[in-house]
Design brief:
Blueprint (H helix, E strand, L loop, with lengths): L3 H8 L10 H13 L4 H15 L11 H20 L8 H11 L7 H5 L5
Helix pairs in contact: 2-3, 2-4, 3-4
């Protein structure tokens, strides 16, 4: 993983990002999906992710603004489920985002930078 630079690229509009990998944004969304306890929802979210990633051409090193926006929208959908409806574990938005920051090696001082791109 690319740490903070990968995370920043997920939440930075495509035109502001110089070097961006496809994996960083996709990995964040996939990790968030994996936190659900519902096999049906996991399958549903994974299918949405497959539809988004199917539009990425082989060898493409950066995501289009449309793809990036679709990934952010899917992340927000998954996040809302996890904080509002997840039956097995109650988690707040702050806790979830902090856990994702830890997972992708982002220190606590930088958390506000990359979450600033998402709706509060």
């Amino acid at each position: 993983m690319g740490g903070l630079s990968s995370i920043k690229s997920f939440f930075t509009p495509i035109q502001e990002t110089e070097s961006q990998t496809n994996d960083s944004s996709i990995d964040i969304v996939l990790y968030a999906i994996s936190l659900s306890s519902s096999p049906q929802l996991i399958t549903s979210y994974q299918e949405k992710l497959r539809e988004i990633t199917a539009k990425i051409r082989p060898g493409e090193n950066s995501l289009s603004a449309e793809t990036q926006r679709s990934l952010v929208d899917l992340y927000v959908e998954v996040e809302n489920y996890l904080i509002e409806k997840e039956p097995l574990k109650k988690i707040t938005k702050t806790e979830l985002r902090k856990n994702i920051g830890k997972k992708f090696n982002v220190n606590s001082e930088d958390i506000a930078l990359f979450w600033g791109r998402l709706p509060q």
